[in-house]
Amino acid sequence: MTTTATNERTPVILWLRRDLRLQDNPALNHAAETGRPVIPVYILDEAGEGRPRGAASLWWLDKSLRALAESFAERGASLILRRGDSEAVLRTLITQTGATAVFLNRLFEPEAWARDADIAHGLKAEGIEVKGYNGSLLTRPGSVLNGSGGPYKVFTPFHRFLLATAVQPAHTTGPRDLSGAPDVASETIDDWGLHPQHPDWSRRFDWTPGETGATAELGRFVTHGLANYGKGRDMPGVPATSRLSPYLHWGEISPWRAIAAARKTAADGKVPGAEADKFVAEIGWREFSAHLLHHFPTLPTHAFRPEFDAFPWRDDDVAFAAWTRGQTGYPVVDAGMRQLWATGWMHNRVRMIVASFLIKHLLIDWRRGEAWFWDTLVDADLASNVQNWQWVAGSGADASPYFRIFNPITQGEKFDADGTYVRKWVPELRKVPDRWLHAPWTAAPETLREAGVQLGTHYPHPIVDHTEARNRALEALKTVSGRR
Ligand code: FAD
Q: What is the CATH number of the domain that holds 41?
């Protein structure tokens, strides 16, 4: 073992990953409390955390790192950017700076967890201190266990236990002065080329990644969305949800801060307490997803209920392409898929509808849909994505039963009754009267003519008939052993 001498001028490394913020950042606070110079570093290690990042995530990361670098600069520090294998980069940095400690907020996905454990083991063996904290979840996975000491597999008791035991940390704004770190070479974010070019498909992305954007979005939500959250969160045409998912994923805001803001708004009498509770429960689903993945590492590739791995999926590239492009002929499905492509985000109700359509109407493997979401969502999150896809497929823990097949027509009529959402994302149907908007093929020819729509020319005929597809899905289900 090499021994490393430490004094008050020996720097410490702050290894940032998905904690791209200065406020409420436990690793940053603890690093600063040492009183030693802090070197913040972000390492672009494409496959280091397991699955390589999707294109929309990289778009977000590009902007988020620029914002973070500005925040550090305001406090007298330079954010160091390096690309490569995380362990190799850390070792180089340690040699270049003489740092004797690495502070980090933990990642809980199994592959990232194992990688981090290996790195910590190697560094500690050489006398480097490695300090890990939880900056992303309300409680550390592994700490929420049922009476028999195992992980919860059902949301409600998990959430009840979480609410009873999780302790909210005090809000912190982060150290004011981070100057004094040694000069270290950094790559530039422009060199990383994370922003798409040729073509730049991100022109309609309406986000402000970074801590300031997160705070603004939270402020908007508690002022304008929270009062009607319980009902409004199901209406894709109504801006009632927080849109915090990408900020939470990248750690630009702590989940505790979001919860505290919602609870305070309720405590001040501005919104009913039940609305804040509902919001906290949704953050609870994020937490449940992370805990499930931590305990069941094969969730991204295998059904939680193994009998579903024998499901007779269809290979249908034409139908899959129509789904990705928003050309299925079902307006609410197409609106969702186009919203996703245009903005990198899709409303939760519509995520459920489009996922159900792919899995049940088209009988296409949920893993293909999950991979598409992974590439196109700015909030792509391994735990939440696979948990939700398996929830819709009926193969997950505490999942919706497979036989519950969303009807894309009635879902549209119920949750987008005035057509605001469909008309925004499927403008070729904007003149179709509400009554036929969610099933335009049922309208009389003159109604369509007056609306300027010719099916098959301006907008596709449905690629499957709803009733036939539903019967086919239920037949397919019979082949899954244990479900007959
Ligand atoms: P709000 O309604 O404001 O909720 C607040 C926060 O709670 C969200 O930001 C999110 O962090 C969390 N949350 C809400 N609903 C869920 C949920 N069902 N599961 C887990 N966390 C939830 N969410 C992701 O963050 N990343 C994903 O990759 C992802 N993939 C999904 C795939 C499918 C098929 C489905 C049905 C849902 C998926 N979700 C995913 C969950 C959910 O759709 C989004 O978190 C939500 O739409 C984000 O919008 P919001 O921030 O306005 O949510």
A: 3.40.50.620
**Amino acid 1: pLDDT:** 44
Tell me the two tokens of residue 268.
Answer: 């001040």
State whether 35 and 76 are in the same domain.
yes
With beta carbons less than 8 A apart as the criterion, state whether 100 and 6 touch. yes
- Token couple for 329: 């002929």
**Are 373 and 420 members of one domain?**
yes
Residue 359 near residue 372, CB atoms below 8 Å: no
Q: Given this model, what pLDDT does residue 366 score?
A: 97
Instruction: Check the annotation: does 415 bind a ligand.
Output: no
Parallel, antiparallel, or unpaired: how do β-strands 38-44 and 80-83 relate? parallel
Q: Which of 109, 135, 161 is the last residue of a domain?
A: 135
Give residue-wise pLDDT tens across range 223-250: 999 999 999 999 999 999 999 999 999 9
Report residue 404 as tokens. Answer: 């519950």
* Residues 163, 276: Cα–Cα separation, whole Å: 13
Domain holding 11, by residue range, is: 2-135
Find out whether 82 and 41 touch, Cβ atoms under 8 Å: yes
Instruction: Give catalytic residues, as residue numbers.
Output: 282, 285, 313, 348, 366, 389
CA of 302 to the centre of ligand 1 (A): 21
* pLDDT one-digit tens code per residue, 61-110: 999 999 999 999 999 999 999 999 999 999 999 999 999 999 999 999 99
Final residue in a domain of this structure, among 295, 318, 342: 295
pLDDT digits (tens, 9 = 90+) for 432-442: 999 999 999 99
Number of structural domains found in the chain: 3
Question: What ipTM, to 2 d.p.?
Answer: 0.99
Q: Is the peptide bond before 182 cis (omega within 30 degrees of 0)?
A: no
Annotated binding-site residue? 245: yes
Q: How far is the CA of 40 from the centre of ligand 1 (A)?
A: 29
Q: Could you tell me if 146 and 108 lie in one domain?
A: no
Tell me, yes or no, whether 128 and 71 share the same domain.
Answer: yes
Name the phi and psi angles at 419, rounded to 5: 75, 10
In a domain, 411, yes or no: yes
CA distances to 168, 222, 432 from 435, rounded to whole Å, are 48, 34, 8
User: Are 396 and 462 within one domain?
Assistant: yes
Q: Is residue 199 part of a domain?
A: no
For the segment 145-203, what is each residue's pLDDT rounded down to a tens digit? 999 999 999 999 999 999 999 999 999 999 999 999 999 999 999 999 999 998 999 99
Contacts of 52 by beta carbon, 8 Å cutoff, 6+ apart: 46
How many angstroms separate the alpha carbon of residue 385 from the centre of ligand 1?
Answer: 8
User: In this structure, is residue 206 part of a structural domain?
Assistant: no
Q: Is 279 a known ligand-binding residue?
A: yes
Pocket test for ligand 1, best of 233, 282, 354 (most atoms within 8 A of CB): 282
Cα–Cα distance, 59 to 195 (Å, whole number)? 5
Same-domain status, 62 and 26: yes
Residues 121 and 101 in one domain: yes
